[in-house]
Amino acid sequence: MSTKQAQLAMVIDSSMCIDCKGCMASCKIANDSPEGQWRNWVKHSVPDFTARFPKIHFQPGGCMHCDNPTCVQACPTGATYKDKKDGTVHIDSSLCIGCGNCIPACPYDARFRNILTKKADKCNFCAERREQGLMPACVDTCPTKARVFGDINDPESEASRLLAKNADRLVRVVNAKTDTKPNMIYLGETAPLNWPVEAKMPTAMVALTSVVNPLVRTVVGLSGIGVAVMLVRQLIAGSGSEDDVHDESGTDSQNKGGDA
Amino acid sequence: MSQKQLKRHDRSDIFIHWFNAVCWLLLLITGLALFSNPEIDPVGSGYPAFVRSLVGGGGNLLLIHVTLGFIWAGGLLLYIMINLKGALFFLKEVFVVSPARDIPWIIKKMVIMTVGPKPLGDNAKLPDQGYYNMGQKAFAQASVVGCIVIVVTGIIMFLSDRTLGAEATALVSWSVTLHYLAVGLVFAGLLVHIYMAAISPEERPGFLSMFTGHVPEGYAKHHHKIWYDKVKSDSGSES
Ligand code: HEM
Ligand code: SF4
Ligand code: SF4
Ligand code: SF4
Known about the structure:
The complex is a heterodimer.
Chain A: E1 8-12, H1 22-30, E2 40-44, E3 58-62, H2 70-74, E4 80-82, E5 89-91, E6 112-113, E7 120-121, H3 127-131, H4 137-141, E8 147-151, H5 158-165, E9 170-171, E10 184-187, H6 203-237
Parallel strand pairs in A: 1-10
Antiparallel strand pairs in A: 1-8, 2-3, 4-5, 6-7, 9-10
Chain B: E1 5-7, H1 11-32, H2 46-55, H3 58-82, H4 84-95, H5 99-114, H6 134-160, H7 169-199, H8 204-212, E2 214-216, H9 217-223, H10 225-238
Antiparallel strand pairs in B: 1-2
The structure holds protoporphyrin IX containing FE and iron/sulfur cluster (3 copies).
């Protein structure tokens, strides 16, 4: 990634997470998520009861504001886009038509179709709070400070310092088939790891990009060539050509071989 | 003009044609800028961003496009209501094809218009045509079917984030695809339509008729023989 532009990211030490779900609750309130719909989550590993104390690992997450966002590829209108200024993946809800293309295109199931607005919804790194100089709600709330938020292209940020300090133990949770280059970076071992799914482009979008778009371009191109050929012929043959032009005055319309 | 004129278009026909043409132009300008995806780039990568910046963002652009779309579809509906007879006459003339006459016509016409009549030799004479020739019919058929697809898919997309639930998103997604397909194919025909109607010299009287409503008898006899004969015999039997 470029070093000049900002890339907001979340650096998470998931071993600190105590599964209090404070991040989920504060996110829901800060962003008015409807009942039953969440912008973030806390996943957990399969509990290991063989040890003396049962072991379980919690993993907070949300939209990963990926560098290679498959959700952006799936969006026809550009309502979902990667903001070049801060590196977040943003939804312009005034432009979103709620087609839902982007939802299966995210390997992390980070998106949902908001049942109230009927448009795509997901974590936006609390854009509204950031504008007021506040930290994202989930980061603010976390009692153990498991979530650290900042510009990882700014070496002075806390997130960058954490990354530098843990350079040899950074984990990005990705699906082997769809590496979206997520900007949610876990420190040390985290679990679970194998939950992201392969990004799925809706069939209609695949048809649009791989069949309909080339077809339309070809047909319009051929038609344009056809018109150009006719125009050239018209200019060369001239309107005086008696092959295809009838008597313009039209006083008597005897046929002259061509057009009848 | 000394020559006798035949009535070809009603005032409402002329109005709806130019209303439709203006709407199409504006809908194309705004609609092409509504696609903003690295994989679909019909005009060029700077175009959507440029148009969006003109109108103050993609949200406004969507609003403008949808509003224009409703004005357009509403205008067409109004025309059908006001001039149902004219609309039905149009549909009949457009969709009734006589293969024996029309297929040779379109093939020969394409040869003549692009490479000239020479390859056809003595066969260059075109079969007689009715109110519309086969080229006009083909374009009009594509327009009618295309416009129905465009309006229906447009309404589905409009309703998507208003009334439709999450279970309808596949329908919405296919509507995006079909909307573009229909516009693209009609647009390909439109290039030829505009050339034939406005640039090609031989259709000049037809072009003028889209303003005056009349064509000279000679032109009608020459280009639309079957229609000409019918008008003549009808008026003969009536008067
Ligand atoms: C600059 C743009 C256009 C010009 C100069 C033009 C010109 C004409 C003319 C002169 C006619 C009358 C032909 C006749 O009856 O002899 C006509 C008919 C027609 N126009 Fe257009 N038109 C334009 C745009 C459009 C558009 C955008 C559409 C629809 C998408 C359209 C659809 C039709 C149809 C369906 C007919 C009747 C069938 C035919 O004549 O092909 N036109 N046009
Ligand atoms: S996590 Fe999903 S929704 Fe978020 S940017 Fe990546 S692909 Fe898009
Ligand atoms: S639902 Fe998703 S893919 Fe569809 S317009 Fe909205 S952001 Fe884009
Ligand atoms: S950054 Fe904001 S929107 Fe994203 S998960 Fe945290 S609280 Fe929710």
